């Protein structure tokens, strides 16, 4: 098992495992899309991957399928509208390249939320250790 450096803004090597920053119940990490560093939230309770509309327009710029819309009901009882689905978004985490289908949300409180679909498709395991929270990638998609 190869260990990498704690995730910070800067260059570092990532093989199959790396340490993510966990702030209370949120797991946050830096990802790279189209050469741009962005902050992502890993949410093991989410059934969707979601990107803010602003992040989509400024950084992802892939075609959006506007026929794939959803109404989102969050755990706080709020609702929101997801404007469409973007397929095969390349997300680099260190040296690991992953892909995701991501819904675009107009008013979401994060740049990108990576939920269970991303975790399952990319064989991502989350391990809690005394040294922190670690993500492990089982295979490349």
From TrEMBL:
This is Uncharacterized protein. Pfam families: Asp_protease_2.
């Amino acid at each position: 098992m190869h260990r990498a450096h704690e995730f910070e803004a800067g260059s570092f090597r990532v093989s199959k495992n790396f340490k993510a920053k966990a702030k209370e119940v949120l797991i946050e990490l830096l990802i790279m899309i189209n050469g741009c560093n962005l902050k992502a939230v890993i949410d093991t309770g989410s059934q969707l991957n979601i990107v803010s509309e602003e992040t989509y327009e400024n950084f992802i710029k892939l075609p959006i399928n506007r026929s794939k819309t959803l109404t989102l009901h969050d755990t706080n009882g709020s609702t929101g509208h997801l404007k469409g689905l973007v397929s095969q978004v390349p997300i680099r985490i260190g040296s690991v390249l992953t892909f995701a289908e991501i819904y675009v949300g107009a008013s979401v409180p994060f740049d990108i939320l990576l939920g269970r679909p991303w975790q399952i498709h990319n064989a991502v395991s989350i391990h809690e250790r005394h040294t922190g929270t670690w993500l492990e990638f089982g295979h490349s998609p």
